[in-house]
Amino acid sequence: MTFLTVSKVHHTYFSSKTATEALQDINLSIDKGEFVSFIGPSGCGKTTLLSILAGLFRPTAGKVLIDNQDIHENADLSIGYMLQQDYLFPWKTIEENVTLGLKLLSKEKEAANELASKLLSDVGLPPVEKKYPRELSGGMRQRVALARTLAVDPKILLLDEPFSALDYQSKLKLEDLVHKLMKEYGKTAVLVTHDIGEAIAMSDRIFLFSARPGRLHQTFEVPEEVRSLTPFEARANPSYSTLFQTIWKELESLEHQQSS
């Protein structure tokens, strides 16, 4: 069932002297519960499109619908946005950081704290509710950021390179965790990444964009035998390697066209 629809989206950035076309005629749809990735060369508009999906600004032209509702005309639409940095408030405890969105929704304090404890447990953390962000490692802080994002029960999760600042071991562990929780919670997710391997290991489909202006170049279906595995296990599957080589060659071709 189609959950998110991007229809004829264009976007141009204007300054006092120039107009830069970032996206051109983007059309795509994402099913409920699907995990997709956006990849492409630098300047292909991946993050611009993710910001539009988040409702941070309107596209110059076109529409984005979630559950057949225009994202810019529904103030109650909950969208989760997880970034490369965790953006935890250093002066607040972990519990206070996780429940911040719930307080804005006027959730009763005791119920909010109970939910925070459950989510922190779900993301694999020990009891850290009364600690402060400075007392946690980078990987643990990103787990807190994930718990905070899930706390408001968002309709969709938008992930903008959330693992790229972590060491490789923490990155792989968080990939597995996010993949598992998205399936368990039945969430729809969009990941922006430069990492082809990460996109294949985590996604059901991959959208490859070309640059200047950003256009949807090709869509890749991740084989079922890869999708049924955890991201860590997926990397050892022969179909993973085959798809990696296919996407790599296509991306190399796009970057060659861009530079010539």
UniProtKB/TrEMBL annotation:
SUPFAM superfamilies listed in its UniProt record: P-loop containing nucleoside triphosphate hydrolases (SSF52540)
Chain ranges of the ABC transporter domain: 4-236
Keyword Coiled coil attached: no
One of the record's GO molecular function terms: ATP hydrolysis activity
Pfam families: ABC_tran (PF00005)
Alphabetical list of InterPro entries matching this protein: AAA+_ATPase, ABC_transporter-like_ATP-bd, ABC_transporter-like_CS, ABC_transporter_ATP-bind, P-loop_NTPase
Sorted UniProt keywords: ATP-binding, Nucleotide-binding, Transport
UniProt name for this protein: NitT/TauT family transport system ATP-binding protein
